[in-house]
Amino acid sequence: MGRTIPSFRIAALMEEKRWKIYRQYLGKYEQKIFKHMFSIAYLFNSASSYAANPVRINPLMFSIALFHQKNILLLKKKLNKNFFFNRHYHLIQK
Fold first, then answer.
1. Tens digits of residue pLDDT in 33-90
2. Which of 48, 72, 45 has its CA nearest to residue 58?
3. What is the pLDDT of residue 13?
4. For the whole model, what pTM was predicted?
5. What is d(CA 6, CA 11) in angstroms, rounded to the nearest whole number?
6. Dihedral sign (CA 9, 19, 66, 39)
7. Which of 47, 71, 76, 87 lies at 20 to 30 Å from 2 by C-alpha?
């Protein structure tokens, strides 16, 4: 019999454990941010489980990027009420 694939929730925890040494060498503030980034990835565990990607870090990193992109777009929407970008993408106040 072949080995079963762990649920993505468990696989995400295993991946976070794999990055423990890296996290140890970050400053205290960066460690906090790093931990927060992995907690963001857990928000998308159900979507990541359907990705069927054998490389666990890919859906985790993409989940983090998706979360940050969503926040960037929300902030941009708020900014656009008071600012606009010229054709060279320079921010100009109205």
1. 888 888 888 888 888 877 766 677 888 888 888 899 888 888 888 877 666 655 555 5
2. 48
3. 87
4. 0.60
5. 6
6. positive
7. 47
Place of tokens 């072949």: 2
63 close to 48: Cβ distance less than 8 angstroms: yes
CA distances, 37 to each of 23, 52, 63 (Å): 12, 21, 9
Q: How distant, in Å, are the alpha carbons of 10, 39, 55, 76 from that of 65?
A: 21, 13, 16, 16
Count of CA atoms in the C-beta half-sphere (13 A) of 22: 8
Interatomic CA distance for residues 40 and 23, integer angstroms: 16
